[in-house]
Design goal:
Strands 1, 2, 3, 4, 5, 6 and 7 form a 7-stranded mixed sheet that branches. The N and C termini lie close together (about 10 Å). The protein has 6 helices and 7 strands.
């Protein structure tokens, strides 16, 4: 049975390659939307589930992995910034504070779905306006939830993490591998 990653994320692809997992990429085509009133865990889970089921509907004989990562400060979900101003605003909000990174993961096998949400706490150093402007000008924040990438230059913003590093990058690898083993897919 072939494994499909329902994501175009190069970081998720790299993790699966590093684990020696054979897979192909088939990104979901639907629009990512968070409904008002959803708790952050529900949003992360629902977005991952939506991606996985969409791709599974096109490839019913395959095992499909869907994932979605969000950044949460208090009760506010910070998605991918729309422009440089929004990226700078998000980074100002995160400056000197602890936030959560939540990744929803869904695996579809034989028409059945199995999912979880992994949470990691991340604390930022206090950031100056110049720190933020320089980071935003690199372009790195533009395709990342919360406007930063811990695996890139964004690592210089992070004071500490409590939890799974790979989750902050976008795929909680250890927990996913355990689920795939439980389901007999590895």
């Amino acid at each position: 049975m072939a494994l499909i990653l329902a994501s175009a994320s190069p970081r998720r692809r790299d993790f699966l390659k590093q684990m020696g997992i054979s897979f192909r990429v088939c990104p979901a085509r639907g629009e990512e939307r968070i409904e008002p009133g959803w708790r952050p865990e529900e949003a992360a889970s629902h977005l991952a589930k939506q991606k996985a089921w969409e791709v599974a509907s096109r490839h019913p004989k395959h095992t499909v992995i869907g994932a979605d990562t969000i950044v949460v400060l208090g009760d506010e979900v910070l998605g991918k910034p729309k422009d440089k101003e929004q990226a700078a605003h998000m980074l100002h909000m995160l400056s000197g504070k602890t936030h959560q990174v939540m990744t929803g993961v869904w695996v579809i096998v034989d028409g059945k779905g199995y999912g979880f949400v992994q949470k990691t706490e991340v604390t930022f150093y206090p950031l100056t306006t110049l720190d933020i402007r320089r980071y935003v000008e690199t372009g790195e924040p533009m395709d990342k939830a919360g406007a930063y990438g811990i695996q890139g230059l964004g690592m210089t913003l992070v004071k500490s993490i409590n939890g799974d590093y790979s989750n902050v990058v976008g795929l909680p690898v250890a927990r996913l591998l355990r689920l795939l083993r439980e389901l007999g897919q590895l």
